[in-house]
Amino acid sequence: MSKTIMITGASSGIGEACAWRFASEGFRMILTGRRKNRLEKLKTALNEKYSVEVLSLSFDVSNRQQTEQAISKLPEEWRRIDVLVNNAGLALGLSGIEEGNIEDWEKMIDTNLKGLLYASRAVIPGMTERKNGHIINIGSIAGKETYPKGNVYCATKKAVDALSLGMRMDLVQYGIRVSNVSPGATETEFSEVRFHGDIQKAKKVYEGYRPLNGDDVARAVVFVATLPEHVNVNDMLIMPTAQASATVFNKCGE
After folding, report:
1. Residue 97 lies in a domain
2. Which residues participate in catalysis according to the annotation?
């Protein structure tokens, strides 16, 4: 039987791109997200193009009860999750700490940090029982470098960075691999969400240079997931060629 990949936040962006890449390699997948219609549409498209098995689950990873129930009630044939891609996450707002929106802070903490923990805690027992599995956490350059007005978002991604290391230490005794894949500037819905739907402001983030796209990151994730089982990529930082750090870009007008 093909390995089963579970991807959180699969209805758009990096998560959706990962689904397409894993499908092209013949993997069966559990796709999760809040937007049921998008998940169903993606499931149909993947089936039509690659004839792969796909199960879609609509729930919010930031809701502990929903997450636990969705994973605990998986059909028997889907209970073995070989690779968990913790992709669900978001940035909300870009402002100084003194004027930050507390609701935005709570949403980022609940999704980027708690959501990752809830999904992981629900999946890990099966991996420890089998003494096999792989957890791939999608981090960010924001987890490596704090940038102005990124305060809480950067803090959540630094927590993902730390959790990846802590998970690896705790789970190495079970033969479980843990990887952290951290993208730099990636043009998806990320900035549109950050600026609460302001498309013009979101577009400006990517002007003057060629950013990564979701498929660029998905290629890296699939590479990490398909290495021999005795090999683990602990930490990968992937950036556009035009980006040297969180704040240094070569914006030459492309």
Report:
1. yes
2. 153
